[in-house]
Amino acid sequence: MSDRHAQGMAIRRKVLGDDHVDRAEAAKTDFDAPFQTLITEGAWGTVWSSDAISLRERSMLTLALLAATKNFDEIPMHIRATANTGASKTDVIEAFQHVAIYAGVPAANHAIKLAKQTYAEMERDAS
Fold first, then answer.
1. DSSP 3-state assignment of 29?
2. What is the share, in percent, of the chain residues with pLDDT greater than 70?
C-alpha cells in the first residue's frame, strides 16, 4: 500500500466515517478495485488531504460542484460528511444558493431537496 493510499484511507475515514468506508471496502470487487484505488489515492489522498483549505471548505465546494454538475447521487453522502467536516447547514445552503445563480435554479432546488431529506434522516438516526 502506497503512502498516498494510506493517507487517502485515513482522510476518507475521517470525512465519511468508518461505517461508510467499511461498507465500500466490503463491496469492492476485482472489477472495481482499480477505480477504488484511483479515488482513494487521487480524490482522498491528494485533493482532500491537502492542507491548503479546510475540510469545511472542501465540503462546501464538493456539494456545490456535485449540484452544479447534476451529480446528485453523492449529495446525501457528502451531506452526512458535513458532521465530520464542520460545514454547517448555513454553509450548505449558501453553497447551493451559489449553484442557483451560477449553474441553475433546478439543480440547486434538487440538491436542497436531497439535503433536507438527508438532514432529516441524520436527525432521526441521532435520536
1. coil
2. 100
**Average pLDDT of the segment spanning 33-46:** 96
Return the CA Rg of the chain. 15
What residues contact residue 93 under an 8 Å CB cut-off, 6+ apart? 112, 115
C-alpha 69/C-alpha 95 separation (Å) is: 13
Count how many Cα atoms sit within 13 Å of the Cα of residue 12 in the half-sphere of its side chain.
24
Query: Angle of helix 3-16 relative to helix 75-85, nearest 10 degrees?
Result: 90
Residue 2, pLDDT above cutoff 90: no
pTM of the model: 0.94
C-alpha cell belonging to residue 8: 487517502
For the chain, give the mean pLDDT: 97
Q: Residues with Cβ < 8 Å from 78, sequence gap 6 or more?
A: 59, 62, 63, 66
pLDDT for residue 3? 95
Dihedral pair phi/psi, residue 86, rounded to 5° = 90, 0
Q: Which cell goes with 124?
A: 432521526
Rounded distance, CA 34 to CA 21, Å? 16
